[in-house]
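As promised in the previous annual report, we have extended the structural survey to additional targets. Below is the entry for Glia-derived nexin.
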Amino acid sequence: MLLTLIYSVTSLSTICATESDLSSSCTMKDPEVQFVNDLGFQLLNKMTKSVGNVFISPLGAAFALGMSYSGAASRTAQELEEIWKDSDGKFATEKVYERLGKFFTGLDDNEKQFTLWNGFLLQNGYEVKEDFVNKLKNIYFVEPKIINFINASVADEINEFFTKETNGMFEEIIAENETVSHISKILLLNAAALNETWKVQFPPERTKRDYFYSGRRETTEVRMMSMEAESFKFYEDLEMKYKFLEIPYKDDKMNMVLALPTQYDQPANIQMDSKLFCEIKNKMSHTKLDMIAFPKYRFETQTSLKDAFMDLGIQDAFNPLQANFSNIQDDSDLYVSDIIQKAVVEVNEKGNEESVITKLKIMPVAFRGVKEFIANHPFIFYVEDTNSGVILFSGRVDEPSESIP
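The corresponding structure token record, generated without further manual editing, is:
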């Protein structure tokens, strides 16, 4: 029995800068972009049905599936195709992944705001088909790395390789308390990172301590960022009972869309898809808001996507008796044991050292009659590439103070 592990590692770090934003209206995107977005929406929809912080990279998950698909055959491949079925019933092929791979190399600009990296580790002496290796090189820009999984220090070796390949952006993918099975033969790695600044700054002097009402009906103290009398794209849907806010990053290349329930006790688990997201974006308009406030937050997550993918119909790939990865090796008993995303998420204002302990005073809306976006209870966020419309990262903030002193 051979063990295949797929790790997807993501990191999001946001600090604030200056000014305001204009962005184009939403239209239905190219098929490959819509595939990625719908995959991310489906995963997030399932994962937000329970409480807790959630963070995923739809693009990272797509490439992990794509690398698996390159080696899959028979019904295993069919299930991986079907998850990408479009509205006309057509299945995705490697051409979709190829276009994505070539397109997203353009996102990695001189400032390294967004970085996408893939890795393929192969057991020393373990032969795989040349066609599979060529697909990894041509579609995912991956050069196979030969490694010996039997070595006791294999975790250190993988971490060292991973750190070097990502230019120090990630220090480890295998934690101290984790082990790598000595029977592993293939390890597929995927990493995406965003380090971007807001276009409109949250004044550091306005960051105050206040309360956040978590999805577990608990109250925790957080550092709440805020600004007043700024214009952002905003929309409130009275039927869905959600407020939506779009905050641009500098240079208008990316933006963060936040979805906030209007009621404190309303779960932040909106069931989103590409069509609904586009409709919401088109209903948003530049609105001068009297108050915008949401917490600084930093949390680390390690999320298994296996159950979510199985719920979406990918069954054989995870079944050691049914999986067929014969396009990697003939008569192979390879299977996918899990797809894991590790995430480090941080959103704050520039200059996060502050010692103010007074609380941010927020009056009930009924007494003020103003337009505001006060995220002092769980909310969902989507980080979108403005040009393509692809969702790079998405998640839910349920406990923002996990790692904030």
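The chain has two domains: 31-195+299-346, 204-295+362-397. The mean pLDDT is 78. These points will be discussed at the next consortium meeting with the crystallography subgroup.
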